[in-house]
Amino acid sequence: RDAAQQQVVEHIDTGSRGSWRAHVVWQLIAFRDWYSCRVACRKPVPEHVAQVAVSLDTAAARNMHTVFEGGAEFTPHPAETRREAVRLAIGRMLRFLVERLERPDQTLHLYSGHDWTVTPLLLALCRHDEPALRSRRP
Q: Which residue has the higher pLDDT, 87 or 23?
């Protein structure tokens, strides 16, 4: 975790007095999911969480990218590590989708996914420094 990510976690931890708790590894992602669910359901959001909503979104996105990229930024060869980790995370699904696109069969194919499927797919299709990857939309 970098300083900005740590600051977001500490801000939420301090303001929530233990009511928002998660394992340290998943805190940013869990906090972002809880925030998104409350907003989507029009439930009250604690003021201290609303104050850092944008920072939380960015920090959670970076945290997820680190997970799916195999911690590439901490390795001697980040580009190669990132490419290999993303291939392992979503390679089979991406190959399946490409095969469907290459052989149209006049059928409408609908696919459903969760952020744990969509995130590595976006990482595989987008450049690493793509601005759209800087935040995590619910």
A: 87
Quick check: 11 and 52 in contact, CB under 8 A? yes
130 confidence band (pLDDT: 50, 70, 90):
confident
Distance CA 125, CA 138 (A): 19
Find where tokens 């991406």 sit.
94
* Contact status, residue 52 vs residue 8, Cβ threshold 8 Å: yes
Which 3-state string (H, E, C) describes 5-69? HHHHHHHHHHHHCCCCCCCHHHHHHHHHHHHHHHHHCCCCCCHHHHCCHHHHHHHHHHHHHHHHC
- Report d(CA 52, CA 67) in Å as an integer: 22
